[in-house]
Give the backbone structure.
Amino acid sequence: MNFPIISSLILLPSIGALFLFFINSKNITGIKYVSLFVSIINFLISIYLWLIFDQSSYEFQFVESRVWIKDFINYKVGVDGISILFIILTTFITPLCILSVNSSIKNRLKEFLIAILLMETLMIGVFCSLDLVIFYLFFEGGLIPMFLIIGIWGGDRRVYSAFKFFLFTLLGSVLMLIAVISIYWIAGTTDVEELYKLGIDPKYQNLLWLAFFSSFAVKTPMWPVHTWLPDAHVEAPTAGSVLLAAILLKMAGYGFIRFSIGLFPVASEYFVPFIFVISLIAIIYTSLVALMQDDMKKLIAYSSVAHMGFVTLGLFTFTQQGVEGGIFQMISHGIVSAALFFSVGVVYDRTHSRRINDYGGLVNVMPKYSILLMIFTLGSLGLPGTTGFIGEFLILMGTFKKSFLVAAIASLGVILGAAYMLWLYKRVVFGELTNQKLLKIIDLNKVELSILTLLALSIIFFGFYPDPFSNTYSVSVENFLNEYNDKLKNYNLQNQ
Amino acid sequence: MINLFYISTEIFLSLAILILLLIGVFKNKSELFIYNFTCIILLVGLAININLNPQFPIDLFNNSYKIDYFTTLIKSVILISAFLVMLCSLNYVKQNDILKIEYPILILSSILGMLVMVSSNDLIVFYVGLELQSLALYVLAAFKRDNILSSESGLKYFILSALSSGLLLYGCSLIYGFSSSTNFDLIYQNSESIEYGIIFGIVFILVGLAFKITAVPFHMWAPDVYDGSPTSVTVIFAILPKIAALTVFINFLYGPFFEMFDQWQAVIIFLSIGSMVFGAVAAIGQKKLKRLIAYSSISHMGFALAGLSVGTNEGIQNSIIYLIIYLIMNIAFFCCLFMLKRENQYFDKVEDLSGLSKNHPLLSLSLMIILFSLAGIPPLAGFFAKFYIFTAVIEQSMYFLAIVGLLSTVIAAFYYIRLIKVMYFDEQKEKYDLNHSIGLKMILVISSIIILIYFINPNLINNFVLDITLI
């Protein structure tokens, strides 16, 4: 047995959280440095993992397996080319969140950082668990810290939003729990690798698929169960919004690839039209809704729903381009939406207003901020040269192969995306400086500047040079689709 | 003599009750001494009980009393939880003027009754045990004599309980009439051909037992009695009789009546679904914590019954794990209630929790863990309890029960997280006292930690029940 690198990735933030628990809550600098240190170490470990990861193999690597509940469930974790990128995204975003608390969190800093670190543990756990029950534990466990993050440190309507978030997500995922237990009795195991090999009897697949879908659809979020997201985003503190948008939403997208499509190929094929329709509704409808928002965070939240609509569209094309595009779009959206929420957080900390009408002419007083926000806006609307472009382009290419009409409608979403993002930028940054309060506003401080610059650089760098990502996942995706097509072929042969 | 050796736990408790009564009569101001001595007696009883654990099942007294691993386990659980309850409620009992010599003695005798119930293998022995525990509990419910609510709850409990005992006795007599025996094994042998008289008997017995574990629709007494009784008695109500009665459920259903599985399964499923849903919905509007926990325990009993309805060994084992985790969570919850006091006044309204996290961060942290666990959110112990139950339920393809149960956990989650909201998101109030006894603090801390880290090695608790095979 080699060094359990994945388990240490999962455990390290929790150990850090335990450590924080015993530090006096008055020692604010100590708390910040400990949590920052832990999260950066975790980031370095994940980068090391990426370096020693064998990109030419589609197998799960660094697999650890231990008996957990006797004769029932094994604790099994491992990564392949798809999941490793999400782990890196998580470990990359978390230190930035911890850095950002300086200005946004005023009370109970220690508890906040403990919650963030616990969140990191759970999120990494989701992306590398190779057992359905373990996955469920991590997936659902995230509810507790996120509920507290929104409820304790949120805005005025935080109670409503926290409850909505909690109950929506819980309702979605209890059905998944039933499906997980059913799979155990149908197939005799909950080990994902085993299940890939064994396959699940097609006659159960549709119901099981729907049960998993109910959970992932709420978390993605897909239309019409997306309504918790704008509320949760608006009321959560900056770091909470960032975690939600950048990583929590990706859990569901990842779940679609790993479980819905991977385990139930026949059902997935069956439900393609359904997914296409609600993805298109999500893209068009939420983009139109985003146009009408006068709250910056709400606008970005709706844009997230639209972007995730692209992701589900891409994943369910089952083409190399579509799936790769879906994965890339998730990573890209993780970075871009995190950057946008950080940017909103910056001005919110200064003026305590998220209303777009309260701003205007920021370029006169905050030039550095305006430049960075421009990059993020362009990244979000998918300008060539940013990560957003690659994801959307690949998805649309994949969709064209499947259906011209769907791709044409989805392309409309790109135009709408450009419309609401540019209009937002115009109203916030350009124009007359009408609000007198804004005169006294100061430009980015060092911490904010470094967070935003880092994000801007990665948006541009990976926009021009996506190979580090695409090399990592391409072999896995290729094998994934081959297996998918094989299973489907077998099924069709049997039915003839 | 060998017979008497195997029931030395019961003999020891009976002797202890008599001696304590004598001490109480002849010695002035011996209340505190008796109370403390009772705690020790419970521990000694536990030690005797564990020592007795027989390698193979033993039948005593013409096969009317049985001792095996299962009964020993349940008895140990009852004795441990009684000890913990006594330990954590000492300060409450002192400060509410209910520390009289009778108080610990009544608790002891009700526990003796439970032990008899658990081991009984005969309808008459079972009934004697049941009445012994119930009579002691009636008195305990009304123990705060000058408080009108407490008297009311005692009376209410007494009348309704008498009614249910009557139904139960009627069921017993039907069974006796149609199978011509009161012994469980003989009933099993004589009832192979299904007769309506026996089915009626089973239904009446189930009604009587459902009353004891507050399963819907026989739950009406629970909120009032929980609310009116002194909190130190409520915690007993919430834990001990339920363990005993659920064990009797198992003894009955998987013993003499197992042939009639198809007949009683529907009844248990009905009780289970009713309790899960009703407990979840009715608790939403409650303003008092004790009423809320009453409804919550109704819903929890529904889950335990769901485990019994499947008719497999796994179902029974998972129900017992559920019970053990349930009692840990409930003891911990009541420890938190005992800590909500200011100048000898105890508080039990939901609004009294408001802003607790600012003044008492550790107390509210443990209460939060307990509540999330009661709601069944992973990775806390309460989730696993439900997870095991549903594993057993889905194994038998009872999807309807599973889906209703899980949806009711979502509804129930609402009122648990409402309490967390009150603690963490609302404005703070005055501070509560901090001078709690060490025993109370220890129990709270240890049980919260068990709930929190159960997931690291679930086998530690699961191993206890693996050997239980009744079928």
Summary: The mean pLDDT of chain A is 87.
